[in-house]
Amino acid sequence: MMSIQRSDDFEKRSVHLKNLTDEELDRRFWELADKIVEPLIDLAKANTSPSIERSVLLRMGFDSLQAGSIVTKAVEHGLLGKGAGNIVLTYAKMNSLTLEKAVEELAVGKGWEALVSNFRGGDRNAAR
């Protein structure tokens, strides 16, 4: 097995950091950390999947049959990208319902047309 030699250039690469205070180094670290994870956050905001959305509903405390039904209906209505949790919250808010009642109705197919209208711009006052 051949060993790869690494030339140690730390001294050259760290010159621009030598005169920074601990606070400035800390600030620089967090700026770079934010810059690194920004594409991941953008990716997570713009992309989802049925399994992720089912997981969200399960973590909200709903059962797997309800979660599966809501996610299936969200896909059918082109709303999955809005987020299953957001869909439930929006429907509950639109109809002054508890989350549990909103999930019950959505799981059996009630309210989807109103949600489609809301998310496509029909109701400017409801959550998006």
What does this structure look like?
With about 130 residues, this protein is mostly helical. It has helices at about 10-15, 20-45, 50-60, 65-75, 85-95, 100-105, 110-120. The chain is elongated, with a radius of gyration of 23 Å. The model is unreliable at about 125-128 (pLDDT under 50).
Q: What labels describe this entry?
A:
128 residues, disordered C terminus, mainly alpha, 63% helix, 7 helices
How would you summarize the topology of this molecule?
Layout: H1 10-13, H2 22-46, H3 50-59, H4 64-76, H5 84-95, H6 99-107, H7 112-119
Task: Write a concise synopsis of the structure shown.
The protein is 63% helix and 0% strand. Helix 3 crosses helix 4 and helix 4 packs across helix 6.
Q: Choose one word for the global shape.
A: elongated
Average residue-wise pLDDT: 88
- Poorly predicted regions are 123-128
Structural class based on helices, strands and sheet pairing:
mainly alpha
Give the helix proportion (percent range): 55-70%
- Give the termini separation: 58 Å
How much is the radius of gyration in Å? Answer: 23 Å
Order of helices and strands: HHHHHHH
Percentage beta strand: under 5%
Largest sheet: none
Q: How many strands in all?
A: 0
Q: How many helix segments? A: 7
